[in-house]
Amino acid sequence: xxxxxxxxxxxxxxxxxxxxxxxxxxxxxxxxxxxxxxxxxxxxxxxxxxxxxxxxxxxxxxxxxxxxxxxxxxxxxxxxxxxxxxxxxxxxxxxxxxxxxxxxxxxxxxxxxxxxxxxxxxxxxxxxxxxxxxxxxxxxxxxxxxxxxxxxxxxxxxxxxxxxxxxxxxxxxxxxxxxxxxxxxxxxxxxxxxxxxxxxxxxxxxxxxxxxxxxxxxxxxxxxxxxxxxxxxxxxxxxxxxxxxxxxxxxxxxxxxxxxxxxxxxxxxxxxxxxxxxxxxxxxxxxxxxxxxxxxxxxxxxxxxxxxxx
Amino acid sequence: xxxxxxxxxxxxxxxxxxxxxxxxxxxxxxxxxxxxxxxxxxxxxxxxxxxxxxxxxxxxxxxxxxxxxxxxxxxxxxxxxxxxxxxxxxxxxxxxxxxxxxxxxxxxxxxxxxxxxxxxxxxxxxxxxxxxxxxxxxxxxxxxxxxxxxxxxxxxxxxxxxxxxxxxxxxxxxxxxxxxxxxxxxxxxxxxxxxxxxxxxxxxxxxxxxxxxxxxxxxxxxxxxxxxxxxxxxxxxxxxxxxxxxxxxxxxxxxxxxxxxxxxxxxxxxxxxxxxxxx
Lengths: 310, 279
Fold this sequence. Notes:
The complex is a heterodimer.
Chain A: H1 2-14, H2 21-45, H3 59-66, H4 68-100, H5 106-112, H6 119-130, H7 135-142, H8 154-183, H9 186-194, H10 199-207, H11 212-226, H12 230-237, H13 248-257, H14 261-309
Chain B: H1 2-27, H2 31-42, H3 61-69, H4 71-104, H5 108-122, H6 125-138, H7 146-153, H8 157-167, H9 171-179, H10 184-195, H11 197-212, H12 216-221, H13 242-262, H14 264-275
């Protein structure tokens, strides 16, 4: 057993005929020091008393879970992700389908522009547009004859933030969808059309199943980028915003400044674990069938390989 | 039906660009005009703010003032440039070879390293913020630009993007070069880098946009304003300086827009290469 293990470890590192280790090592050392070491440190701190450093089991986790602000932040963050990520995915998909056949690149470029606008500039424009007596309320009251909306408080600020995220990331997601669409052979859709399938049916039953990998990529990037909406939230309303947009990112910042290290570490571990649970779940949901197929293909290959060896 | 969809998409595209139009027109407006149209926001005036999409009396005063009377602006601007350029150069030195190594190596451990890299790429900054701070503090980098530069140099995002473009290079080409007696370094510099240039550039462009807009890290790691990058400075938005706020915003958008429009083709192609295989 022991011999087998050492052999496995040796094989694990040895098989490197090309010896690419030297290319990877400098980067790997940096990643170890600046990403993985902090990760291990956070994990250890989540089980320690913040002063004495003694092991305290799950006490920090209890503190975090029973903290009202943490609960509010979790609630808001989950709600935000559940609304904004699907919305962003669907909207960017519809746009890329519409843009795909357009000849001019101008429209595509227009969707990409928000990506280039720094968050502090967004904060300036949003003030002009969405203040209580801002331009948007002016249009709402005069053109549409409705009541003005307080965009910077209550539910409205939550949806303003959802809108900001969608607006900023539409273009990036569009690029990934477009790359996926470009790979699908045109003949498939045309054959279906000849057989009398409607456009919507083609989209649901032909196009989407062919875009599984793109769907997964878009889902992952949307989730990762949605955490960056903190920039706008922070620059518009600071470290203690309206209760409706008090997110996990806010509470980590505030625990950090108040040195709530134990709670913070526990919260961080919980966040990381659930974050990756969601990613795995998405992978299962979106890529499940594909994996099965791939396995079949691999099996088929192995079999034919055996035959060849025989 | 199709026409309606097209019209809707064009409308959405216009909405996406509109904020930039606001900023650029605002930058060329005089103080009087801005007070006139924005007084409901700036000084509790009656009614609602309005906008002129063509400034009534276009002026360069805001721009001149920002460029000649606001030394703080230069400090912020050069801080941003310095931070972004150092990060990107660092990534050229560390991330590009790593991507090449991972793409070429066919061992088990390199696969494990790649999966760990994807994991690092997806991790939200807030999770490791505290411990990263402690480590940077230990290395006395806190409150210096190094605290932003060094961890970002080892960001695994560019590795991931560049990896995909290196993966497209067929083994046979490399093997042919090896047979001709080319060494590893030679193959990397003369073959891998030129062939994978699109992926490398795409990663650099995305990196520029990302680091030009860095907020989370400088807010936590920097204390003195002399060290700040542009991205965390909120221009004062008051009656007499509103024009300067717009001009400031315009100047922080312009570098990003230039990089973006120069590289938009490369970006589209570079992303399409990598779009294929996350996870």
